[in-house]
Amino acid sequence: MGAVTDDEVIRKRLLIDGDGAGDDRRINVLLKSFMKWCNSPVSPEDGFTQYQRMVGNLAQCEFSMGKTLMVYDMNLREMENYEKIYSNIEENITSAHEKIAECKKEILRAKRIRKNRQEYDALAKVIQQHPDRHETLKQLEALDKELRQLSRIKENVDAKLELRKKQFHVLLSTIQELQQTLENDEKSDDDNQGSPADNGE
Protein backbone atom coordinates (compact mmCIF):
# COMPACT_ATOMS: atom_id res chain seq x y z
CA MET A 1 0.00 0.00 0.00
CA GLY A 2 1.12 3.64 -0.54
CA ALA A 3 2.39 6.04 2.13
CA VAL A 4 -0.26 7.56 4.41
CA THR A 5 -0.72 11.30 3.78
CA ASP A 6 -1.14 14.01 6.45
CA ASP A 7 -4.81 14.47 5.53
CA GLU A 8 -5.48 10.81 6.18
CA VAL A 9 -3.71 10.99 9.57
CA ILE A 10 -5.77 14.05 10.59
CA ARG A 11 -8.98 12.43 9.39
CA LYS A 12 -8.27 9.25 11.36
CA ARG A 13 -7.42 11.22 14.52
CA LEU A 14 -10.68 13.15 14.21
CA LEU A 15 -12.57 9.89 13.76
CA ILE A 16 -10.89 8.48 16.86
CA ASP A 17 -10.96 11.59 19.07
CA GLY A 18 -14.31 12.97 18.07
CA ASP A 19 -13.98 16.40 19.75
CA GLY A 20 -10.36 16.85 18.71
CA ALA A 21 -8.89 16.31 22.19
CA GLY A 22 -6.27 13.57 22.15
CA ASP A 23 -6.06 10.58 24.46
CA ASP A 24 -2.62 11.70 25.59
CA ARG A 25 -4.12 14.90 26.99
CA ARG A 26 -6.84 12.97 28.82
CA ILE A 27 -4.29 10.61 30.34
CA ASN A 28 -2.03 13.48 31.37
CA VAL A 29 -4.98 15.28 33.01
CA LEU A 30 -5.97 12.04 34.72
CA LEU A 31 -2.43 11.48 36.04
CA LYS A 32 -2.18 15.05 37.31
CA SER A 33 -5.56 14.75 38.97
CA PHE A 34 -4.57 11.46 40.54
CA MET A 35 -1.25 12.87 41.85
CA LYS A 36 -3.06 15.93 43.17
CA TRP A 37 -5.75 13.76 44.75
CA CYS A 38 -3.08 11.62 46.42
CA ASN A 39 -0.89 14.50 47.66
CA SER A 40 -3.46 17.18 48.49
CA PRO A 41 -5.17 17.10 51.90
CA VAL A 42 -8.82 17.57 51.05
CA SER A 43 -12.07 16.81 52.78
CA PRO A 44 -13.69 13.45 52.18
CA GLU A 45 -16.45 15.14 50.19
CA ASP A 46 -13.98 16.91 47.89
CA GLY A 47 -11.86 13.78 47.64
CA PHE A 48 -14.87 11.71 46.63
CA THR A 49 -15.82 14.34 44.06
CA GLN A 50 -12.31 14.26 42.62
CA TYR A 51 -12.42 10.48 42.68
CA GLN A 52 -15.70 10.44 40.75
CA ARG A 53 -14.20 12.89 38.29
CA MET A 54 -11.13 10.67 37.78
CA VAL A 55 -13.33 7.62 37.34
CA GLY A 56 -15.29 9.53 34.71
CA ASN A 57 -12.08 10.56 32.93
CA LEU A 58 -10.85 6.97 33.12
CA ALA A 59 -14.12 5.76 31.64
CA GLN A 60 -13.74 8.28 28.83
CA CYS A 61 -10.21 7.05 28.20
CA GLU A 62 -11.39 3.44 28.17
CA PHE A 63 -14.26 4.36 25.87
CA SER A 64 -11.89 6.26 23.59
CA MET A 65 -9.51 3.30 23.65
CA GLY A 66 -12.36 0.93 22.80
CA LYS A 67 -13.45 3.19 19.96
CA THR A 68 -9.86 3.44 18.80
CA LEU A 69 -9.54 -0.35 18.79
CA MET A 70 -12.80 -0.64 16.88
CA VAL A 71 -11.65 1.91 14.34
CA TYR A 72 -8.28 0.15 14.15
CA ASP A 73 -10.00 -3.18 13.50
CA MET A 74 -12.24 -1.49 10.97
CA ASN A 75 -9.19 -0.01 9.25
CA LEU A 76 -7.53 -3.41 9.20
CA ARG A 77 -10.62 -4.92 7.60
CA GLU A 78 -10.75 -2.06 5.12
CA MET A 79 -7.09 -2.56 4.30
CA GLU A 80 -7.69 -6.27 3.76
CA ASN A 81 -10.70 -5.41 1.63
CA TYR A 82 -8.66 -2.88 -0.35
CA GLU A 83 -5.93 -5.44 -0.84
CA LYS A 84 -8.50 -7.94 -2.12
CA ILE A 85 -9.94 -5.28 -4.40
CA TYR A 86 -6.44 -4.39 -5.58
CA SER A 87 -5.69 -8.08 -6.19
CA ASN A 88 -8.95 -8.46 -8.10
CA ILE A 89 -8.13 -5.37 -10.15
CA GLU A 90 -4.68 -6.79 -10.92
CA GLU A 91 -6.24 -10.10 -11.95
CA ASN A 92 -8.82 -8.29 -14.08
CA ILE A 93 -6.08 -6.24 -15.72
CA THR A 94 -4.08 -9.40 -16.45
CA SER A 95 -7.19 -11.10 -17.78
CA ALA A 96 -7.98 -8.04 -19.91
CA HIS A 97 -4.45 -8.11 -21.38
CA GLU A 98 -4.84 -11.80 -22.16
CA LYS A 99 -8.22 -11.18 -23.77
CA ILE A 100 -6.78 -8.31 -25.79
CA ALA A 101 -3.92 -10.53 -26.97
CA GLU A 102 -6.42 -13.29 -27.87
CA CYS A 103 -8.60 -10.76 -29.71
CA LYS A 104 -5.56 -9.60 -31.68
CA LYS A 105 -4.87 -13.21 -32.63
CA GLU A 106 -8.50 -13.64 -33.66
CA ILE A 107 -8.29 -10.48 -35.77
CA LEU A 108 -5.13 -11.73 -37.49
CA ARG A 109 -6.78 -15.13 -38.03
CA ALA A 110 -9.89 -13.46 -39.47
CA LYS A 111 -7.76 -11.32 -41.79
CA ARG A 112 -5.89 -14.42 -42.97
CA ILE A 113 -9.16 -16.29 -43.56
CA ARG A 114 -10.57 -13.29 -45.43
CA LYS A 115 -7.44 -13.08 -47.59
CA ASN A 116 -7.59 -16.82 -48.34
CA ARG A 117 -11.28 -16.51 -49.18
CA GLN A 118 -10.60 -13.64 -51.56
CA GLU A 119 -7.82 -15.63 -53.23
CA TYR A 120 -10.14 -18.63 -53.43
CA ASP A 121 -12.91 -16.55 -55.02
CA ALA A 122 -10.47 -15.11 -57.54
CA LEU A 123 -9.18 -18.61 -58.37
CA ALA A 124 -12.74 -19.90 -58.63
CA LYS A 125 -13.56 -17.16 -61.14
CA VAL A 126 -10.53 -18.11 -63.21
CA ILE A 127 -11.50 -21.78 -63.09
CA GLN A 128 -15.07 -20.98 -64.09
CA GLN A 129 -13.76 -19.27 -67.20
CA HIS A 130 -12.24 -22.59 -68.33
CA PRO A 131 -14.14 -25.81 -69.10
CA ASP A 132 -14.28 -28.41 -66.45
CA ARG A 133 -12.26 -31.62 -66.52
CA HIS A 134 -15.08 -33.76 -67.91
CA GLU A 135 -15.71 -31.33 -70.75
CA THR A 136 -11.98 -31.09 -71.44
CA LEU A 137 -11.71 -34.89 -71.61
CA LYS A 138 -14.64 -35.01 -74.03
CA GLN A 139 -12.97 -32.42 -76.23
CA LEU A 140 -9.69 -34.34 -76.07
CA GLU A 141 -11.45 -37.55 -77.03
CA ALA A 142 -13.15 -35.80 -79.94
CA LEU A 143 -9.85 -34.31 -81.08
CA ASP A 144 -8.14 -37.70 -80.77
CA LYS A 145 -10.92 -39.32 -82.80
CA GLU A 146 -10.67 -36.61 -85.43
CA LEU A 147 -6.87 -37.00 -85.49
CA ARG A 148 -7.16 -40.76 -86.01
CA GLN A 149 -9.68 -40.16 -88.80
CA LEU A 150 -7.38 -37.64 -90.43
CA SER A 151 -4.51 -40.12 -90.09
CA ARG A 152 -6.55 -42.78 -91.87
CA ILE A 153 -7.50 -40.29 -94.57
CA LYS A 154 -3.83 -39.36 -94.97
CA GLU A 155 -2.89 -43.02 -95.23
CA ASN A 156 -5.56 -43.55 -97.89
CA VAL A 157 -4.44 -40.48 -99.78
CA ASP A 158 -0.81 -41.59 -99.55
CA ALA A 159 -1.79 -45.07 -100.80
CA LYS A 160 -3.80 -43.61 -103.67
CA LEU A 161 -0.97 -41.24 -104.50
CA GLU A 162 1.51 -44.11 -104.52
CA LEU A 163 -0.86 -46.08 -106.73
CA ARG A 164 -1.22 -43.14 -109.08
CA LYS A 165 2.58 -42.80 -109.20
CA LYS A 166 2.88 -46.48 -110.14
CA GLN A 167 0.10 -46.19 -112.72
CA PHE A 168 1.69 -43.06 -114.13
CA HIS A 169 5.04 -44.83 -114.31
CA VAL A 170 3.42 -47.77 -116.08
CA LEU A 171 1.66 -45.34 -118.39
CA LEU A 172 4.90 -43.59 -119.18
CA SER A 173 6.59 -46.91 -119.80
CA THR A 174 3.75 -48.00 -122.05
CA ILE A 175 3.88 -44.74 -123.97
CA GLN A 176 7.60 -45.08 -124.42
CA GLU A 177 7.25 -48.66 -125.63
CA LEU A 178 4.41 -47.63 -127.96
CA GLN A 179 6.49 -44.77 -129.30
CA GLN A 180 9.44 -47.07 -129.78
CA THR A 181 7.20 -49.57 -131.57
CA LEU A 182 5.84 -46.85 -133.86
CA GLU A 183 9.32 -45.64 -134.64
CA ASN A 184 10.40 -49.16 -135.42
CA ASP A 185 7.36 -49.68 -137.70
CA GLU A 186 8.04 -46.45 -139.55
CA LYS A 187 11.66 -47.42 -140.00
CA SER A 188 10.63 -50.84 -141.34
CA ASP A 189 8.24 -49.24 -143.82
CA ASP A 190 10.93 -46.92 -145.05
CA ASP A 191 13.28 -49.81 -145.51
CA ASN A 192 10.72 -51.80 -147.49
CA GLN A 193 9.99 -48.92 -149.86
CA GLY A 194 13.63 -48.45 -150.75
CA SER A 195 14.49 -52.13 -151.58
CA PRO A 196 15.51 -53.15 -155.36
CA ALA A 197 12.80 -55.71 -155.74
CA ASP A 198 10.21 -53.20 -155.07
CA ASN A 199 11.72 -50.72 -157.58
CA GLY A 200 11.75 -53.32 -160.42
CA GLU A 201 8.11 -53.98 -160.19
What's the count of strands? 0
* Mean of all residue-level pLDDT scores: 78
End-to-end separation in angstroms reads 169 Å
What is the H/E order?
Answer: HHHHH
> Fraction of residues in helices?
over 70%
Low-confidence stretches: none
Largest sheet: none
Query: What proportion of the residues form beta strands (DSSP E)?
Result: under 5%
Structure in words:
The chain is mainly α. 90% of the residues lie in helices and 0% in strands. It contains 5 helices and no strands. The chain has helices spanning 6-17, 23-39, 44-128, 133-193, 196-200. Helix 2 (23-39) packs antiparallel against helix 3 (44-128). The protein starts with 5 loop residues before the first helix and ends with a helix. The mean pLDDT is 78.
Which terms summarize this structure?
201 residues; mainly alpha; 5 helices
What secondary-structure arrangement, pairings included, does this model have?
Elements: H1 6-17, H2 23-39, H3 44-128, H4 133-193, H5 196-200
Helix pairs in contact: 2-3
Summarize the structure.
The protein has 201 residues and is mainly alpha-helical.
